[in-house]
Amino acid sequence: MDLKIEKREIKKIIRKGAIRTFYQPLVSLINGEILGYEALSRGPEQSSWEMPLDLFSAAERHGLLWELDFLCRVKAIENFPESLENNKLFLNVSSKVVASDQHQFGATLKLLSQMELDAGNIILEVNEKTALEDFSLFSQVIEHYAYQGFNIAIDDSSSEFSGFSFLSRIFPQYIKIDRGLVCDIEKDFFKQDVVQSIKTFAGRKNIELIAEGIETAEELKFLINLGIDYGQGYFLQSPQEKNLGVSREKIKIIRDQNRKKVIFSQLSSYPIGKLADTPPSVEADITSEEISDLFLKDPAREILVIVDHQKKPRSLVYRDEFVGNRIFDGDKRAWEEEELLTYDYYSPFKDVFKKVVEDQIDLEDFIVVTRGDQYFGLIQVRKIRDCLKEMELDQSFEINSLTGLPDPKLIETKLKQFLEENTKFCIINFQMHNPDKYGLRTVQDLVGLKLRLLRDVLGGSLYPNYFLGQWKKNGFILMTSDQEIKERIENFYSSYLREAGEYFKNGNGTFLGIKIGGIWVESSKSELVEIKKEIEQVQKKLEEETGNVFNI
User: Fold this and answer.
1) Which of 186, 196, 283, 301 lies 20 to 30 Å from 141 when distance is taken between CA atoms?
2) In this structure, what CATH number is given to the domain that contains residue 86?
């Protein structure tokens, strides 16, 4: 196209305000609630300038980038069919716009003021690639908008910029994970490791993560399992001019997967040996005839385990190999050495489950369980799958939208389990000071800080024998048989006071403290009803306290 004609057409689009805005939701991967919408601008329908890349490239060629960019912002805000008081609006920002001679400082803020809207509900997305090309310009853009009170999201993050060194010098509220990392993440270990490193970094900086470009249910479920905060993509909802929102079907997928995640986390450290059956074993020198006789005498017996003189498992033999289907030499050794899938009694359920899934082990196969290298029992693979299904059917609980923890409905179930499995354990109640006096963002930040610090002091994924759940409105409960828990929680308490203090120094209001109380339970001397009363008493005492409290 002739450049004069091109310039004339771009000017005409700007003059007529011929920009359409589509909105794509950013959805909580905990409960399916909508955080906000990203505004996506399009040129006139079925024209040469419908796609934004073509439109903005032409505007840049003719020095019209600022005018077009500002028009897109105006249209995004004006056309938004929802209330901006209850939703966040994500707007893309080009660093080239800020650097252009036509740029007008404070124009967006002035627009919001005229419309009586709060800048706190506008999230400006700055592309990470700008940092790669010109970090000085990138910093200028961030400072320019942060100074005016806008929240910042780093767009298309892919961990290319060595170790996120540039992010340690800026403080975005959100990081958007690039579609390139999200695509088929459930199949790609490298992508999983990269996203996990982004998540670890973000957790330490209290930055929330948004996964872009989710296009399949498998990607969505895997990201939920990773603990990513929010998601966006065509699988959840395509960009729309009107009729915004997410279908009930997609919300159900998110909530169901979170329930499964909680169920699996409770099973993850469960000793696999507790699922084992104990069919008898026979010595390695047994003959074929002797094995056949054992099967004939016991019609219910389908399998025998061959062990050596040290009781180590060597092979499995099955009824159908010896009864009616096989001609054998009565004096010949009846079995052949085979490589058995063997796990120690105390191996965590999650390790065995992962092996079963990754190697696609047949449901009819068996896992051999040992204890001190000696044969203990067998688990049919089907039983592992059924165990998960059973728990899913038995547990009816919701996931708290603020903490991502299971609600109190699950606490009584876990309390019964702890009473059965532990002689002595600790129940610790964590409470906030008057959270209703603070904004949701502040409460979210501090809840996230608490959960991260707890995981740090208790060891990565939390102490193996634990349960962490939502308790009442303002707190949560930790159950654990860790006998050194008091020292660990003391470390958590001091770390929280220090880091939360720093948080409030950065202008987030008056310090919001923490109250911690706990009791030790001896299973042999305690009844469920009594324990629940004691928990209530601890909570009541904490609510009556006015300062920070630590009492275990």
Assistant:
1) 196
2) 3.20.20.450
What is the C-alpha separation between 467 and 262, in angstroms, rounded? 10
How far is Cα 526 from Cα 419, in angstroms, rounded to an integer?
8
Q: Which residues, at least 6 apart from 142, have a Cβ–Cβ distance to it below 8 Å?
A: 126, 152, 170, 172
| CA-closest candidate to residue 121, choices 98, 89, 163, 92 | 89
- CB-count burial class (<10 Å; 0-12, 13-18, 19+) for 483: exposed
**Tokens matching residue 177:** 């994970």
pLDDT of res. 289: 81
| Same structural domain, 341 and 429 | no
125 forms bridges with which residues in the sheet? 92, 153
Provide the pLDDT for residue 376: 94
Q: For position 96, what pLDDT does the model report? A: 77
Within 10 angstroms of residue 232's Cβ, the number of other Cβ atoms is 26
Are 413 and 381 contained in the same domain?
Answer: no
Domain count, the chain: 3
pLDDT at 460: 44
| 170-214 tens-digit pLDDT | 778 899 999 999 999 988 888 888 898 888 888 877 889 999 999
Cα→Cα distances 70→11, 76, 95, Å: 13, 10, 13
CATH code of 438's domain: 3.30.70.270
* Whether residue 161 is found in the same domain as residue 231: yes
What whole-number distance in Å separates Cα of residue 232 and Cα of residue 278? 49
Q: Extract the tokens encoding 168.
A: 């340690």
| Helix (H), strand (E) at residue 376 | strand 374-380
For the chain, how big is the Rg over CA atoms in Å? 30
Question: With 0-12 CB in 10 A as exposed, 13-18 as middle and 19+ as buried, what is 272?
Answer: buried
488 domain residue, yes or no: yes
Residue 253 lies in a domain: no
pLDDT of residue 162: 43
Q: Are 488 and 377 contained in the same domain?
A: no
Instruction: Find the domain containing 522 and state its range.
Output: 397-551
Extract the residue ranges of the chain whose pLDDT is less than 70. 99, 101, 128-134, 156-169, 263-269, 323-335, 388-410, 433-445, 455, 458-465, 472-474, 503-512
Chain mean position to CA 312: 41
Do 401 and 384 belong together in one domain?
no
In a domain, 260, yes or no: no
Q: Are residues 436 and 517 in the same domain?
A: yes
The CATH number that applies at residue 348 is 3.10.580.10
CA distances from residue 461 to 190, 259, 480 in whole angstroms, order as listed: 21, 17, 13
| 376 within domain boundaries | yes
- Helix spans in 459-527 (H): 485-505
Summarised one tens digit per residue, pLDDT across range 499-519 is 877 766 655 555 667 889 999
**Could you tell me where the DSSP H helices lie in 246-375?**
248-267, 288-297, 349-358
| CA gap 547, 433 in Å, rounded | 8
